[in-house]
Amino acid sequence: MTDLAAPGSPSPAPTTLGELRATGARFHPVKAELRANLLARLGAGQPSLPGMVGFEDTVLPEVERALIAGHDLVLLGERGQGKTRLIRTLVGLLDEWTPVLVGSELNEHPLHPISVWAHRQIAEHGDATPVGWLHRSERFGEKLATPDTSVGDLIGDVDPIKVAEGRTLGDPETVHYGLVPRTNRGIFSVNELPDLAERIQVALLNVLEERDIQIRGYRVRLPLDLLLVASANPEDYTNRGRIITPLKDRFGAEVRTHYPLELTDEIRLLHQEAQTSWTGDGTFGMPVVPEHLVEIIARFTRLVRESSHVDQRSGVSARFAIAGLETVTASAVRRAAIAGETRPVARVVDLPSVVPASRGKVEFADAGSDPDDEREMEVLEHLLRQATAQTFRARCAGLDLTGLQEHFTGGETVESGELVPAPALLGQLGTIPKLAELLGRLGVPEGEQSAEQAAAAVEFALEGLYLTRRLAKDTDGARTVYGA
Which phi-psi region, left, alpha or beta, contains residue 80 (left: φ > 0; alpha: ψ -120 to 50)? Predict the structure, then answer.
């Protein structure tokens, strides 16, 4: 591939067709460009599509084979499996900069013009024809398929303004090109393809096979150069809508995506994707979510996906887990603001806030007619307790917590809650036996063992003792009392 600019540079030097020819540049089709850059990454031992968690041994090899074969492809999977993210990541396999004719609506390569306009420009200006440079971020187009999508949106239509300017209807330059030809020499994505009306899908047949377009009977033959990628949900694919058979036949590869298969991948995805709206501007320190809470959210998400109460055809998006982690973090920041803590650290008491916040992201298989059906809340609350218990057993198995239990032998209680600060929680317990060992089990480095981290660890241990029926607990709204 031609790479005339170092990464990060504003653009390569040649500004005319003559200067470009002098560099020895050549035209490469988009699929050849993607293939060469992909093979270079694989040969260098680099990840082909960085940021795609959990697909390394399943989805990515299939995508890589499709790109090497030069196939257009369709990604098939339930919502929130990263289909759109994967498609957008493909842009990173394009050359950083590519030459284009200045003023071209179709991003035409100066050495491979395809339109009447481009041929006329080169004929008039020769080697002085202006050349610009297009960054790979501008070589991606996408359309969410909706029932109101028209052929004109995707392919193009006659532009009445150009006709009004005096051009005849037979002039190809009266055409206003749609999204697909305007993404020429790039990657075009159709999201949720089955939702596209069947008569509109027909318009894509020539794009996929003959690599050209037809507009209102014009004899316009544009050999488009692009990679077409579509996404579809299996439920839509077979029930609500469908991809017409001739169009399916023209896609070179169909790749099935999935949710993270391993708990470790679920946790990696949470760490990568969960965002926070605060930037450590001095109001508070950056919020901390201990690893055991991240694991609880990950386990909770997996339990919801596996639950018989949840519609398996709809799936449970990765956004469910991401939003849950962000909600827990926000709860810790809210407590810090109210209680005056300087370093917000999330605790088990912040977990219940996940249930009402994420309820709208789950489709229940046996949902009643009442949109406020309390059974749904009960199902999610039960699964959250189950995820907490699983995490406690996984992280604290074999840990002697009898010293902590003995604090409650005389009928003592410990009050916690979403607004109870860490010092107030720890002050009720006094000296806590084997606290350092508990912190170590939960992955807290020695240099970060603050009062807030200790409170988070102790509260997790108290909740674990309750869930394993070794300690009583009473909850009344935002108030939680352990013991007696």
Answer: left
